[in-house]
Amino acid sequence: MIYGFARRWAAAGVIGVIRDQLCRKVRLASGKTPRAASAIVDSQSIKASETVGKATRRWDGGKLINGRKRHLISDNSGLVLLVMVTDAAAQVSLVARELLFRLALDRSPSAGRQGPRRWVVERSWSWIMRARRHCRDYERLPEMSESLITWAAITLMTRRLTRRSSRPATQVTTWTPVAQAA
C-alpha cells in the first residue's frame, strides 16, 4: 500500500516538489539564498539484488560491480538537488551532462563540478547510505530507486529543519574527593 503511494507520488512529481521545497527552507534557515549557486556532481556504483532485472543493470568494469550506478547532484551544504539511477556501465560524463541540463531547466545553478569540494557530495552519499536499504539496490525499476533515495534526502532535510538550534545547558558538577579518616 505504501509502496503504491510512493510510486504514484514519484510519477506525479510530488516527491520532487517536496524535496525542492524542503531544500529551499533548509537553505533559508541556514542564512543562504533559496537556490543553490553551484552544484557538485558525483556517482556511485552499487551492487544490485536479484530482484533487479538484467535489462536495468550491467557490469561496471572500473569498480568490478554488477549493478547500477547512482548519480547525485548536491549543493555546497550537501543538500540533494537531483538523483538519477542508470545501469552501472553508463558513461558518467554523459549522465552528468543530462543531470546538469535537467537542473539548469529547473534551478539554473552556475556550474556542476568535481574538485576541491567533492567531499560535500561524498558526505551526502554517506548520509543516504545510513539507511540500510540503500547499501544495495533492491528496486526493480530505476525510477523507484531514484524516488527512495530522494525520500532519504527528504528525511535528512526534515531532520535539519526540526533539530533544536541549541542544546539545553547542562549543569556541570565537579567531583571533590573526600578525605579518608585514619
UniProtKB/TrEMBL annotation:
It holds the Pfam family DDE_Tnp_1. One of its GO terms (biological process) is DNA transposition. Residues 40-100 form the Transposase IS4-like domain. It comes from the Bacteria. InterPro entries: Transposase_11. Coiled coil: none annotated. One of its GO terms (molecular function) is transposase activity. This is Transposase. It comes from Streptomyces ferrugineus.
